[in-house]
Specification:
heterodimer; A: 6-stranded mixed sheet; B: 7-stranded mixed sheet; 4-stranded antiparallel sheet; 52% strand
């Protein structure tokens, strides 16, 4: 069983839709939870990070962590075609330590 | 700030040759650098963790004699794929973290743009 599970999609939505991306994990030692966006043939870029449980909002993006359920989510409001990319969740036990990535969800936002 | 570069961005080589990939932190000192590989439509798999001036720590299943990592300075790490074979064709990505994190308490890893290796 993988430490981090993420539905690879693909996920296709119309412009303006709310997108929900999720990951589950099995390692209770994870404390830092990140969402990365990766465009084709590019390196990942950090969108948001959350420490422990809770919610965090940044513009159109909201990250949620439920440690009791070992479940994290990323919501994208008012999705735009420029949001089309692969979204990867990642986790670590301590700040700056090795990351364990989910498989990535390929998202397409259609104009 | 916090830019990580990789060179080359893509490389094609013949089977049996060695290829060196450089990873540089351009505007900060990276105490730790990580090397990942990514196959098409798959996630990033950590290959090794390297700290400046010490030997790299390899993940289980990664051949340390095949994937040589050198982290000689706080701004440069290199990955050498020795005696490359077609199955080594992949997207190699490095990341670096240090004291340049811009996200508060979290010591962020900054990723390079990746190097696409094709072995014929």
């Amino acid at each position: 069983q993988k430490e981090v599970e993420q539905d690879p999609g693909p996920l296709s939505v119309p412009e303006g839709a709310i997108v929900s991306l999720n990951c589950t994990y099995s390692n209770s030692a994870f404390q830092y939870f990140m969402w990365y966006r990766q465009y084709s043939r590019k390196g990942p870029e950090l969108l948001m990070y959350t420490y422990s449980s809770g919610n965090k909002e940044d513009g159109r993006f909201t990250a949620q962590v439920d440690k009791s359920s070992k479940y994290i989510s990323l919501f994208i409001r008012d999705s735009q075609p420029s949001d089309s990319a692969t979204y990867l969740c990642a986790m670590s036990g301590t700040s700056g330590s090795r990351l364990t990535f989910g498989e990535g969800t390929q998202l397409t936002v259609n104009p | 700030g916090a830019v990580v570069s990789q060179h080359p961005s893509w490389v094609i080589c013949k089977s049996g040759t060695s290829v060196k990939i450089e990873c540089r932190s351009l505007d900060f000192q990276a105490t730790t650098m990580f090397w990942y590989r990514q196959f098409p439509k798959q996630s990033l798999m950590l290959m090794a963790t390297s700290n400046e001036g010490s030997k790299a720590t390899y993940e289980q299943g990664v051949e340390k004699d095949k994937f040589l990592i050198n982290h000689a300075s706080l701004t440069l790490s290199t990955l050498t794929v020795t005696s490359a074979h077609p199955e080594d064709s992949s997207f190699y990505i490095c990341s670096a973290n240090g004291l340049a994190g811009t996200t508060g308490a979290y010591n962020e890893q900054f990723f390079g743009p990746g190097t696409r290796l094709t072995v014929l």
